[in-house]
Write a structure and sequence with these properties.
The chain contains five helices and no strands. By secondary structure, the chain is an all-alpha fold. It has a single domain, classed as Alpha Horseshoe (Serine Threonine Protein Phosphatase 5, Tetratricopeptide repeat), CATH 1.25.40.10. Helix 1 runs antiparallel to helix 2, helix 2 runs antiparallel to helix 3 and helix 4 packs antiparallel against helix 5. The longest helix is centred in the C-terminal third of the chain and has 22 residues.
């Protein structure tokens, strides 16, 4: 079983230097894209700007779409410790059940 590199690991990057007015404009654009259902485009902007609320909302969307690893990645980048810790506990339980089934 292989991993594609965009989903295999959680990478934390340092956002590029963006002045306050540029960041605000990009976040507004990201919010508009998110609200119109263009989640992936919004995600790219939120990652670029480091907009924690936007990243957390994208994580909520992924979670609602049954994409827990992608949700965890967004929560981790946000950083939204409450939501990421909840996801980690849930994923650990899934892994534990899988290990117990193999025994």
């Amino acid at each position: 079983m292989g991993f594609d590199d965009k989903n295999a690991f959680i990478k934390k990057t340092i956002p590029p230097k963006i002045d306050g007015s540029q960041k605000a404009a990009l976040n507004r654009k990201g919010n508009m894209l998110f609200n119109s259902g263009k989640i992936e485009e919004a995600r790219k902007i939120f990652i670029t700007t480091g907009y924690s609320d936007g990243l957390s909302r994208v994580g909520d969307y992924y979670k609602s779409q049954n994409r827990p690893l992608e949700a965890l990645r967004m929560y981790w980048l946000a950083p939204d410790k409450a939501k990421s810790n909840t996801m980690i506990i849930q994923l650990a339980g899934i892994i534990q059940n899988m290990v117990n089934e193999d025994e």
